[in-house]
Write a structure and sequence with these properties.
Elements lengths: L1 E7 L4 H11 L6 E8 L5 H8 L4 E3 L8 H14 L4 E4 L8 H6 L4 E5 L14 H10 L3 E8 L9 E8 L6 H25 L3 E4 L2 E4 L2
Parallel strand pairs: 1-2, 1-4, 2-3, 4-5
Antiparallel strand pairs: 5-6, 6-7, 8-9
The structure holds glycinamide ribonucleotide (GAR).
The site of glycinamide ribonucleotide has 17 residues, from helix 1, strand 5 and helix 6.
């Protein structure tokens, strides 16, 4: 069984998709060991508790400086001994020490087709605002492994979504979640849990 720790910051709809796909057997060979949030009181924590998954908050507000927060975050992750860390709307820069310790064992969902609309400053609704401002006709989502850059790690899965007339950032965000994110992230976990993903030379390869 692949032990998975899911890291969240807010609403947790991607977390919910993972919980639901484990429950209905779409994701196999996977145990959700814990959910870790950097924010108290967010809906993602409720979703974890409702599913009976241990949920903890490590907030930067509780620590004097960044390095103390990062140490606490890493200690919380380590305590669950994960095989895979899933960033499901986790809007914190991952400490370098965590990336070293869990090389090729951290994946992230980003709400664009990387390398478009990604990198520093592109997160959440801002991604969709930028896509609409640029007038692109196709957007989407990407699951990638996390390296020390921002959204620069090996790409595992991508799915395109059409922009439609009258889209607002919120409408577009919802469509990208429904048509891409909530499918891709569970699919990525299932592939990894079943030994179908290899990472080498900066590329992720799926073996059938
Ligand atoms: C999702 O759209 C996710 O792709 C995005 O935050 C949202 C979280 O929603 N992540 C990023 O922008 C990372 N750079 P959720 O809490 O409902 O899953």
């Amino acid at each position: 069984m692949l032990r998975v720790v899911v890291m969240v910051s807010g609403g947790g709809t991607n977390l919910q998709a993972i919980i639901d796909r484990v429950a209905d057997g779409t994701i196999t060979n996977t145990e959700l060991a814990a959910v870790i949030s950097n924010n108290y009181g967010v809906k993602a924590l409720e979703r974890a508790e409702r599913a009976g998954i241990p949920a903890v908050t490590v907030s930067p507000k509780d620590y004097g400086d960044r390095s103390a927060f990062e140490q606490a975050l890493l200690a919380a992750v380590d305590s669950y001994q994960p095989d895979l860390i899933v960033l499901a709307g986790f809007l914190v820069v991952i400490p370098a020490a965590m990336i070293d310790r869990y090389e090729n064992r951290i994946i992230n969902i980003h709400p664009s087709l990387i390398p478009s609309f990604c990198g520093t400053g592109y997160y959440g609704l801002k991604v969709h605002e930028a896509a609409l401002a640029r007038g692109v006709k196709v957007v989407g989502a990407t699951v990638h492994f996390v390296d020390k850059g921002t959204d620069t790690g090996p790409i595992l899965l991508q799915k395109a979504v059409e922009v439609e007339p009258g889209d607002t950032p919120k409408i577009l965000q919802q469509r990208v979640m429904e048509q891409a994110e909530w499918k891709l992230l569970p699919q990525a976990i299932d592939l990894i849990a079943n030994g179908k993903v290899m990472v080498a030379d900066g590329h992720a390869v799926i073996r059938e």
